[in-house]
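Blinded run. Sample ID left blank on purpose so nobody reads anything into the name before looking at the predicted structure. Input follows.
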Amino acid sequence: MKFTDDQIADIGEEIIMVLKTVYDPEIPVDIYELGLIYDVQISDDADVKIIMTLTTPNCPVAETLPQEVKDKVAEVEHVNSVDLELTFEPSWNKDMMSEEAKFELGML
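Blinded prediction complete.
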C-alpha cells in the first residue's frame, strides 16, 4: 500500500512522539531532544529507516537502547518495517541537544 505525503507526515509525527518516550538512562532527557536521532526516513510504503547514535560508543545501553527504539517505532500504526542504523559519525556532542534538553540539564 502506498501512502500519501500527508499520511507519511502523520506517521513521521507519530514516530517522533514515540521517540520522545525513550530516555537515555544516564540523562533525564529523551533521546530525541538529546539529538541522538540523526535521521528518520519513511518510504511511501511506510518502511522506516532510523539513523541514530549514542552519547558514547561504550554507552551501557548500546545493545538495549537501539532495540527499544526499533520495537517502539515498529508499534506505530501503519509502520511496515523498521531498519535501524547505529552510527558514531558524526560523534554526538552536547551542541546537538535541543534548547529544551539544555534547559532541563541546567546548561542554559
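Unblinding after everyone has recorded impressions. The CA atoms of residues 38 and 52 lie 5 Å apart.
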